[in-house]
Amino acid sequence: MSTEHQEYDRDGTVLESQADGGIVTQLRLEHPSLLLGPTLRRVPTVTVTPEYWTTVETGRTLVFCSVSGESFDAFETALEVDPTVTEPVLVDRYPDRRIYRVVRTDETIPIIARAASVGGRLLDLSSSRDGWLAQFHFPSRDRLISFNECCREREISVSVDHLRVSDDDDDGVVALTDKQQQLLAVAYEEGYFEVPRGISQDELAERLGVSKSAVSQRLRRAIGQLCTSTLRRM
Q1: Quick one: which H or E segment has residue 159?
Q2: pLDDT tens string for the chain (234 positions)?
Q3: What is the pTM of this model?
């Protein structure tokens, strides 16, 4: 049953409400025409997190991305031949990551806009090995099905990591992934959060069989989600 209903504001105007309930889901999306799709496939050792995007007066959509990993040269080379973006620019450089600005091309499938067109709200977005890991809130199961149908029409691969019903006390954050839970559990048990630390990120990476950049990004996202959930309840 749809969770949508009508409310009245102070002036008596009828408003459509999607504020109660709904579906919160974490999806893996893969297709060569998604933003940076070819680059992510060519350089799976980096993690890309879009910071924000905006459309300027010329009609171009600028996307600013945070990139971490150990293959910046390979990433920049892949950007130059990626048909989903143009005009790549290195905006800033930090010890553990770099910030790039790209212009989205007309060949890119605007997947976030498609989700929004059926009522989906983006909660989080980061790259996975061959595509994107996206967290959405949809006002109803039917709206989620509509989004899946949109993806199917464009031959976008969609797989579900998490799916749950939202409730009145929902903080808007999807539960931690299994990999995030595993990392936090090992980090805690081995004293990563103690002073001095009982284990380094390099040792965590070796213990879990993943790259150091994967450990860094996974820790950052997991702790960020936990902080968001906790602070919103205060």
Answers
A1: strand 157-165
A2: 444 545 555 555 566 655 566 888 889 999 999 999 999 999 998 999 999 899 998 889 999 999 988 789 999 999 999 999 999 999 999 888 899 999 999 999 999 999 999 999 998 898 987 799 998 999 998 999 999 999 999 999 998 887 777 665 554 445 566 677 888 889 989 999 888 899 999 899 888 887 777 788 788 877 876 765 555 444
A3: 0.68
